[in-house]
Design brief:
This protein is of the alpha/beta class. It is about 40% helix and about 20% strand. The strands form 4 sheets. Strands 8, 12, 13, 14, 15, 16, 17, 18 and 19 form a 9-stranded mixed sheet that branches. The chain is elongated. Keywords: ATP synthesis, ATP-binding, Bacterial flagellum biogenesis, Bacterial flagellum protein export, Cell projection, Cilium, Cytoplasm, Flagellum, Hydrogen ion transport, Ion transport, Nucleotide-binding, Protein transport, Translocase, Transport.
Amino acid sequence: MDEHQHHQEGTGSSDPHTGRWKSFLRDCDTLVSFADPMQVSGRVTRVAGLVMECVGLRLAVGAAATIPTASGFIEAEVVGFEGERLFLMPQSDTEGVVPGSRVFPVESVLPPPGTVPHGRRRPQDRARHLPVGMQLLGRVVDGAGRPLDGLGPLNTTEVGPLNARPVNPLDRAPIKDTLDVGVRAINAMLTVGRGQRLGLFAGTGVGKSVLLGMIARYTEADVIVVGLIGERGREVKEFIDQILGPEGRARSAVVAAPADSPPLLRLQGAAYATAIAEHFRDQGKNVMLIMDSLTRYAMAQREIALAIGEPPATKGYPPSVFAKLPVLVERAGNGLEGGGSITAFYTVLSEGDDQQDPIADAARGILDGHIVLNRHLAEAGHYPAIDIEQSISRAMHSITTHEHQLAARKLKQLYSRYQRSRDLINVGAYAAGSDPVLDQAIAKNGVIEEFLCQEIHDNATLPQSLGQLSSLFN
C-alpha cells in the first residue's frame, strides 16, 4: 500500500497539470502575504460631555481606539460599556467628530518575545506599553510618552506596561535602610526608609513644591521620576526650571499632564510615571518617585466615573476613586529581596486645609506616613512649614536607633508643650517654675525653631541632622 501511494505521488508530481496548480497556489500564497488584513471598525453614536459612545466593536475595558477626523486622529480608551455600546474617553478634545465617525481598534504594542519573564496572558501584560529606559533621564514627556521639551524623539526601544502586575507582598524586601532626603526636620524627626511611601499633606501656597524640589535635589537616589499631574502649566515649567534645577533634572524623568489635559491623560500620566519608576527598580536601582498630586489623580478618575454614570458616594467621589488609589500607591515600594526600590512622595491637596477631606483621609490610610504642612507656620515665615505634631513616619521605629527615637520624642514633647501654652506665655500669665517641662520648652524654643527651619539651598545630611538633634539636649 505504501509503495502504491509513493508511486502515485511520484507520477502526480511529474504531471504538468499538477505542476501548474502548485505554481498557481505558490503565487496565491505570495499575494496573500502582501494583502492587508480586514480592518474592523465601529461608529460613534453619541458624544456627551467627556464621553463618546460607540457601537459595532467588541473591545475590552482599557483597550485603545482611534477616531479619524478631518484634522487628524483622536486617541481614546474604552472605560466602560453597557450592552453593545462602548464608552470611550478621548485623550484630546472631541472637536471634529461627526455622527457616524469610524472607530478603529488599536492593537497594543507588545514587547518582543523573550524580553519579559512571563507570558502575556493577563490584562496587565496586554495593556498599553509606553517608552521607558535611560533615554528618559533629563527629558519631559506627557502622559502618552510624547516629548514636551523640544529635544527631539526619545530614541528608546524599551517599552513598559502602564499597569504592571502587582508584587506579591510576601516577596517584597522589608524597609530596613534609612534614606537621606537632605531636609533636617524630616531626617531627624520623620526619618524616611528606602522603599517607604509618604504623603505630603498641604493646602495651596504653603510651600509643598519647594519642599519637593529640595527633596529631589538632595536625596540619595540613582534615578528621580517626577509626575506632575493636574498642576497649572506655569507651575510645571517653574518646577522643572527653577525648583528641580539643572542638576536635579539631569537624573530625572519628568511626566507632565497639566490641568488642561483630558482626565484620561492625567490618569495615564500617573500610571506612566509609576511604570518608569518600576522599570528602573527592576534594574536594581534605587528610585525616588515624586507625584504632585494624588488629589488631582483622584479628581481625574472622578470626572471619568461620573461621566459614564457611576453614582457619587462620599462628597461627590464615586467608589471607583477609592479603589484606584491603593492600586496606584501599592506599585511603589521595595522590590524583591536584593533588588531595587521606589521611595515615593505623594502630595495630597487638603482643600481649605481640611485634613478630613475624603481623599486626604483615604491616602492617610494607605501610605506609610504623612508629612503635614501647616499654613500658620508658613505665614510666620517658618520654612519648611512641617507640623511635626501632626506628622508621622511609620517606618521610623524600625530603621533608627533607640537614642535617636528618644531625642526625637523629647524634641516633639517640648515643641508641643510650648505650642499649647503659647498664649499664656505671650500674655505673661505663666509663672516660671510652676511646670519644669514647660520651663525647659521655653528655654529651648529658640534653638528648636532654628533647628526645624532650613533655607532652600541648604543641604542638611542625615549625620548632620542627627548630630544637631543630639546637641540640642547636651
